[in-house]
Amino acid sequence: MPKVREPESGDEAHVDMTPMIDVTFLLIIFFVTIQQLTVLEVATQVTLPEASMANPETAEDRDRLIISVDENGRFYVANEPLDLEALGKRLEREAKAGKPDEEGYSTRTVFIRADITAPYGAVQDIMAACRKNNIFRLAFRVREWKK
Amino acid sequence: MKRASAGQQEQNTELNITPMIDCVFLLLIFFVVTMKYPQIERNMPANLPKATAEGQEEQEPEKEVIRYYIRLVYDESRDPNVRRRLRSAVSAFKQADYQAANASTVGEREGQRELAEDLKQRIPRPEMLAQGARVRSYGALDGQLMLLERSAEDADVQIILDADREVPFMFVARVQEICLRRGFNKISFAEKRKK
After folding, report:
1. Which residues in chain A are contacts of B181 at CB distance < 8 A?
2. Which domain holds residue A101?
3. Cα distances (angstroms) measured from residue B176 to each of A139, A140, B11, B42, B145
4. Interface probe, candidates B5, B169, B174, chain A, greatest A C-beta count within 10 A
5. Which CATH number goes with the domain that contains A79?
6. If I label A38, which of A71, A103, B8, B163 is the partner at 20 to 30 A Cα–Cα?
7. What is the pLDDT of residues A114-124, one digit of tens each?
8. In whole angstroms, what is the distance from residue A133 CA to residue A55 CA?
9. A111 in reach of chain B (CB within 8 A)
10. Whole-prediction pTM
């Protein structure tokens, strides 16, 4: 215990260092942990377009599928590159896994994180694949833009 | 801080913790400075045209449905090199953007960011066609939508967006945003054209 054993009779204040060190260690652990917690789904480096008319996140985690598209039109799910065929299979799996809603459409929501320079054709391909698999809930991911 | 032990029984080693606290604070400052805040991502909903058995969505029969087509194209008849220019402009921009993100000094990063912005502006914009008529700028498109808003008071406006495959996504997103700003929430994306 780093307490000074003999308090001096002078005017000096003796600060007990232990709690301060505890708090500091806690803070360090907090910051270290935060840095490790990058969600894999949104880990693909993509520059999203800016929009001011966007809505905050509403879909639940399990009904969500996030597909990222980079500037070369390549698709990524959970930071793993896929080609169109593999994407189709993945969408098929996702669509079949959930229960369809009252109108018969899949309850899965697909979020497309497309880079600003991603070719629109790639996005179109994703939408076509979604349509084929009965997924009609789509949204584009954007960055917030405050005018 | 070390107390001289009076006798051999007292083995009190006092730990001088001042340097330890210094190290701890250094570590803390390091982690605070290298923390990167994740960008908050939001969603812009996109609708796909739902094909029912009849081929049309059943709306309330009294309501008129206006379909407003907006297309983004690169017209090679006007500018034969536009696709090539697009490719080189996009790669130049992406390179500068990458440099900006990985710059080692703040000065370098700012410089690269400016360069990247400049290059982004140089990316050729696609031609916008609203109901087949050329629209010269985003402002003009907004104006057209304002007219549409006025002329379609009761009717249900369905905006159908389409673009060439090479069109960079940012232009499509911008058009979608302009439509949303004007209050047109029913935006759907056209199916792939079979060329």
Report:
1. 52-53
2. 41-144
3. 12, 10, 76, 14, 12
4. B169
5. 3.30.420.270
6. A71
7. 999 999 999 99
8. 25
9. yes
10. 0.73
